[in-house]
Structures are given as C-alpha cells and as structure tokens.
C-alpha cells in the first residue's frame, strides 16, 4: 500500500462528473506527476485530495482516511497544497502570505520560515514586497513557500511551470528535488509540460477527460508512442 492511495475516485461539480474512477498510488519520498492537457481534470484531482469537491471512492494518507474530511483537518494530517500562484493575497507582503500558511503549524513558524528562506533566498530578500508587484516566478515561489509553512509530509503542486521562463522552471525543479532528498517530502505535481514532468518525476499518470489513460515509470513511458504523439508532437 502506498503512502497516498486514491481508489476509484470520481468527482462531481453538481451533476457534472469531472473524474471517473481514478486510481493512483504514491510511495513515501517519491515524486510523481499527473500529466494532461488543460481541462483534463488535474486540478480537480488535487482539489479532491484536499476535500474541496464532492467525491465518491476512497483517499488515504498512510492509515488515515481523508475522504469526507474538511481541508483544515487534511492539512493537519500533513498535506500541503501549492495552488496556482494567482491564489495569493496580492496586497499582502511576501512574509504575510507565507504566515497565512502557518495557521495549522504555529509552533513550527520559525523553523519553517528558515526552511523556506533557505530554499528561496529571494523571498527573504523581498519579504516586505507585496506579491502583486512580483514576477510570475517569484509568486510561484511564494505559493510553494506558503504550502511548506504547513509542515507537510505530502506536498501537492498544481501546474508549477505554467507561464514561467525555462530558467525559472529549472529553479522550481531543483527546489522540489531538495524537498524530497533533504526533507523527505512526498510530492505530487500536475503538469501540462510533459518534458518538465519527465525530468523531475519518477512515475507519470496521464489524465484525459477525467480518467487515467496511461501510467508507468518515466523510463518505461519515454518512448511510448501514445505519450509522444499526444505531448511531444510526434
């Protein structure tokens, strides 16, 4: 059994079904990627793990069943969620945005701030800057940092490279690797950029129209004709 297991997960917005019997498993200390086009259901999958959608099926983190819990309880069990950077508070400073993420881990604020500043020195340099004045890459760093302020064992990261320059994408990838290697964080990312996902993750799940179509290790899928046709254009 994996550290995170999602079994027969279906998700609904009203009567509309967004996910169809999705199954994924993530081992502790692993990075996996959910790859798919815009609208495939990637964000819905992460939202469902966080208890933000109406679902059927079972979601477990270790021995804890997450299904039916509210988001605050799920965060307290060790799940952090770095949503797209546009969900920051634009008129608040970098520091205050980070502190918003600490409401379930108040005893760890200084330790977690120190970790975030070591991973993203730029955020310490600009801690008094309003996030609305920052670049897209800097806002992505704040989004990741805010999620890390919750002391997560499992980190969910939604579209970490969307709209970012290649150099910034490499910086984000390096931080995610450090989180896994130095802090033992288990990480699930969603990505439209299959190239980025394959350089970072150990395993991929390809999501299309709310259902898993392909899954496997990066090595086994690198030459998969369905994957290359859909995401590499040949």
Please give a handful of descriptors for the protein shown.
234 residues, alpha/beta, Rossmann fold, 4-stranded antiparallel sheet, 10 strands, 27% strand
Q: State the end-to-end distance.
A: 36 Å
CATH hierarchy: architecture of the largest domain? 3-Layer(aba) Sandwich
CATH top-level class of the largest domain: Alpha Beta
Order of helices and strands: EEEHEEHEHHHHEHEHEEHH
How would the blueprint of this fold be written?
Layout: E1 4-13, E2 16-26, E3 31-35, H1 42-49, E4 54-61, E5 64-65, H2 71-76, E6 79-82, H3 94-100, H4 109-119, H5 121-125, H6 136-148, E7 154-158, H7 166-183, E8 186-191, H8 194-200, E9 203-208, E10 211-217, H9 218-221, H10 225-231
Parallel strand pairs: 3-8, 3-9, 6-7, 7-8
Antiparallel strand pairs: 1-2, 1-4, 4-5, 9-10
Compact overview of the structure:
With 234 residues, the protein is an alpha/beta fold.
How would you explain this protein's 3D organization?
With 234 residues, the chain is an alpha/beta fold. It has 2 domains: 4-78 and 153-231, Rossmann fold (3-Layer(aba) Sandwich); 91-151, no CATH class. 37% of the residues lie in helices and 27% in strands. It has helices at 42-49, 71-76, 94-100, 109-119, 121-125, 136-148, 166-183, 194-200, 218-221, 225-231, and strands at 4-13, 16-26, 31-35, 54-61, 64-65, 79-82, 154-158, 186-191, 203-208, 211-217. A 6-stranded mixed sheet has the order 6-7-8-3-9-10, sandwiched between helices. It has a 4-stranded antiparallel sheet with strand order 2-1-4-5, covered by helices on one side. The longest helix has 18 residues, at 166-183. The termini are far apart.
């Amino acid at each position: 059994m994996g550290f995170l297991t999602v079994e027969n997960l279906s998700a609904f917005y009203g009567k509309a079904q967004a996910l169809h019997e999705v199954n994924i498993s993530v081992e502790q200390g692993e990075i996996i990627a959910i790859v798919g086009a815009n609208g495939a259901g990637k964000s819905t999958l992460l939202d469902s793990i966080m208890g933000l959608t109406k679902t059927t099926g079972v979601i477990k983190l270790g021995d804890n069943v997450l299904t039916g819990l509210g988001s605050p309880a799920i965060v307290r069990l060790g799940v952090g969620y770095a949503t797209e950077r546009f969900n920051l508070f634009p008129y608040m400073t970098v520091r205050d945005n980070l502190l918003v993420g600490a409401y379930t881990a108040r005893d760890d604020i200084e330790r977690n701030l120190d970790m975030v500043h070591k991973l993203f020195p730029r955020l310490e340099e600009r801690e008094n800057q309003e996030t609305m004045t920052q670049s897209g890459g800097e806002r992505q760093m704040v989004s990741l940092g805010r999620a890390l302020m919750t002391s997560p064992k499992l980190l969910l990261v939604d579209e970490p490279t969307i709209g970012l320059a290649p150099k910034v994408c490499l910086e984000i990838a390096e931080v995610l690797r450090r989180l896994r290697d130095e802090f033992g964080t288990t990480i699930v990312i969603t990505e439209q950029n299959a190239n980025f996902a394959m350089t970072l993750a150990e395993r991929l799940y390809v999501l299309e129209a709310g259902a898993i179509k392909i899954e496997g290790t990066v090595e086994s899928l690198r030459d998969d004709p369905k994957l290359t046709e859909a995401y590499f254009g040949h």
